[in-house]
Specification:
Helix content is about 60%, strand content about 15%. The chain is of the alpha/beta class and about 290 residues long.
């Protein structure tokens, strides 16, 4: 490799380092807002769950609702939340691999995806995709989550769907996130709490108008929407933290590679100088 080739290689690595460093700073800035949004939404999501559980505990046993209906046969629908863009390490692939563990029969499994990476992953492998949403993975909005929840409800009610699962990535910290799978539909064990917790926590008495059944019918779709929105916020924070870590590692690796190339460049240059001096000395000796 000539000195010019090495200089071009060093320049290319430096340009890549500038790009990865810029992406690292952008992801770090966006991560703070995504983390704050996920943390701020958590108390609301927990309170909605508590309210639904309390209303369900006071509802009549013969309550009928499409989201409570148990289907004996049908397909399994999986909602997989991943990224729209790459350069985020193994974030999207880990979520997709987690979704694969839920598949019992490929022919009886359908997918709704959030993010281009999840859509492409299952499309290229021949899985059945009924709907896909993209352009919202980094900054999910309330209406985005409502569209996803509406699509799930329509699929569960109007099609032969036995159960619905959701795969998302839970944000633990800036350096740790883990994919999780939860069952969304049909709603099971509503109003049933652990016996010890129920004894320790005082139960407040509420009067529901017009009735607990009617209130629960209204809250069930809202509960599903809230659960999906909270998962999308968690996934957004996880995506940005994964991208931040991946770009930080790429920047460090580029720095190490540049140091090695500079060392190699100096060795080749010194070898060239030594060779030229040897030729000059040899020529001078030959003229004597």
């Amino acid at each position: 490799m000539s000195l010019q080739d090495i200089r071009h290689h060093i320049k290319g690595v430096k340009n890549i380092q500038q790009i990865t460093n810029a992406m690292d700073m952008v992801a770090t800035s966006r991560l703070r807002h995504a983390k704050e949004a996920a943390i701020a939404n958590r108390p609301y999501a927990e309170k909605v769950k508590e309210a639904v559980m309390d209303v369900a505990a006071h509802a009549s046993g013969d309550l009928t609702h499409p989201l409570l209906q148990q289907h004996e046969t049908g397909k399994r629908l999986i909602l997989c939340i991943a990224a729209d863009k790459g350069l985020a390490g193994a974030y999207s692939s880990n979520a997709c691999k987690k979704a694969l563990t839920l598949i019992e029969d490929k022919n009886n499994t359908t997918f709704i995806t959030v993010g281009r990476k999840a859509r492409d992953y299952f499309h290229f492998r021949g899985y059945n995709l009924t709907d896909s949403f993209f352009g919202i993975s980094e900054k999910p909005g309330v209406e985005d989550a409502r569209m996803v929840a509406t699509a799930l409800i329509d699929q569960f009610i109007d099609h032969d769907i036995k159960e619905v699962y959701m795969v998302y990535t839970h944000f633990v910290s800036a350096i740790n996130c883990e994919p999780r799978a939860v069952q969304l539909l049909p709603f099971v064990n509503l109003g049933k709490q652990d016996g010890d917790k129920a004894d320790k926590k005082p139960q407040a008495e509420f009067i529901y108008e017009p009735s607990a059944d009617e209130v629960l019918r209204f809250l069930l779709p809202q509960y599903l929407f809230t659960t999906i929105y909270a998962a999308m916020l968690q996934s957004a924070a996880s995506e940005l933290s994964s991208r931040m870590n991946a770009m930080s590692n790429a920047t460090d690796n580029a720095e190490d590679l540049m140091n090695k190339l500079n060392l190699h460049y100096n060795k080749v240059r010194q070898a060239g100088i030594t060779r030229e001096i040897t030729e000059i000395v040899g020529g001078a000796e030959a003229l004597k």
